[in-house]
Structure formats: C-alpha cells, structure tokens
Amino acid sequence: MAPLDPIETQRYARQVLMEGWGEPAQHKLKRTTVFIAGAGGLGSPVSMYLAVAGVGHLRICDYDRPDPTNLNRQILHDESRLMLNKAVSAKMTLTALNPHIDVEALSDRIDADNVDRLVGASSIILDCMDNFETRYALNACAVRRGIPLVHASVWGMEGRLTFIQVPETPCLRCIYEEGPPKEVFPIVGAVPGAIGSLQALETLKYLTGIGRTHKNRLLVMDGGAMSFRTYKISPDPACPVCGPHRATSADRT
User: Fold this and answer.
1) What CATH topology corresponds to 32-252?
2) What does DSSP assign to residue 60?
3) Where are the domains of the chain?
C-alpha cells in the first residue's frame, strides 16, 4: 500500500483524526471508485465533498450542458462554461479542488442499456438525478450488482434521502412504485446543497465503515419549517426489481 504523500497527509489530517478513520480508511477511500449520476444541483455538493475527502476515483456522468437557470444551485459550473458538457465542467472543478484524485467525465445519457457499462467497477452509486426513468435504471443496476445506491431528491424547500442496499433494505421501486412526471420544478440552491452534503456523508460512512447509514428509513427535510422527519420503509415482497434477488438471497441462507 503506497503511503499518502506529504500534501495528502496534510490535506486529510483533520478527518484522519476521526475515531476509526485513520490512515487505513483514507487509503481505502483513495482506492475506491464511486459513480455519480448527475452533475447538477445534487451532484455538485456530492462530488465536491467526495473529492475533497480524497475518494480516489470519481466517475461523474451527465449528458447535458449548463444553462443560466442552473446556476443558482449547480455550483460545479459558472457562466464561462455554458457551452460545455456538465460532466466535463465538473471534472475541471473537481480536479482543481483536489489534484490528487482521478475524475472521469462521462457525457452519456444514462439508460437501461448502458448503465452497467457506465457504472463500471464502482463500489457505490449516487442517485443525483431529476427524473425517475433514470433513477429506476440506476436502482436496477444496483440490485443486479449487489452494490449500494444512495438516493436523494429535492423539490422546492423539501429534500429526501435514503440508503438502499438490497437485500437488507427495500429498493427504490419498493419505495416509489411510480415516479412523478418530469417537470420544471421550483428549487432554492441551499436545499440540494444540504441534501447533497448528507448524501456525500452517507457515502463516506459506508466506504470507511464509520457510523450508521440511513438504511430502511427515509429522511424528509422541510427546509421551510427547518424540520427533519424519518419514516420507516419496508421491502415490497411483490417488487419486480428486487423481489427475485431477495428470494435468491434467502435460498442461499
């Protein structure tokens, strides 16, 4: 295991002080690949906090380009990058934040046919999307591969978050049998900033083995009232996505 170089040792010194973290957890982060679906309002804080924490390989995917209406929340981008692909713009920002990590910019539109290729050898998937068609493709991939999916969503001043890891938890299709129609929705940038930061924290807890992830619970933040509520969620035995995998897992025990 190659040691951290002196600059990395200084950069990560405060988090290495965490009980149970130390250099072993930091080395693990450096060797890990994370797939971030979306370089927008949620993908911005998620990718930035994972980058500065020293996650060694980030695969960030977005087919779109930023437009002026994005700039109140998509802090990976600025007015000089309106003609760039969002993933390419994200790579520029993230490598400037931490030149000690590798960032892959993927400019594909995620769908059921290419999701496995795009996720590659990633250890975890982060759902930073704004539509359920893509979310369901990510969810099915996570179930198929037996890797976690950290789901988050925002609307107005509300944010939601859960940690999905089948068969220990329900999958996204269990929670939302059908997604809402795609729409242009209201949003204030601090909301995805808050929820995206929690999404990054869930990921770091899982990768380092420190703390408890938000399994079998749905966190709902009401930013207007500044309230946080947690709801218990359970698997749907009839779920067409995770039901067969759950049955297979039970057969093995």
Assistant:
1) Rossmann fold (3.40.50)
2) E
3) 32-252
Residue located via tokens 């405060």: 14
Instruction: For residue 176, give the amino acid letter.
Output: Y
Alpha-helix residue ranges (DSSP H) falling in 40-189: 43-53, 86-97, 115-119, 132-145, 172-175
Tokens 């924490």 found at: 53
C-alpha 22/C-alpha 19 separation (Å) is: 7
| pLDDT tens string 172-188 | 999 999 988 888 899 99
What strand order describes the sheet that includes 217-222?
A: 102-106, 57-61, 33-37, 124-127, 149-155, 158-164, 217-222, 227-232
Give the contacts of 251 (CB within 8 A, at least 6 positions apart): none
What is the pLDDT averaged over residues 206-211?
A: 97
* Residue 68, preceding peptide bond in cis (omega within 30° of 0): no
Helix axes 190-208, 43-53, angle to 10 degrees: 40
Give the predicted TM-score (pTM) of the model. Answer: 0.95
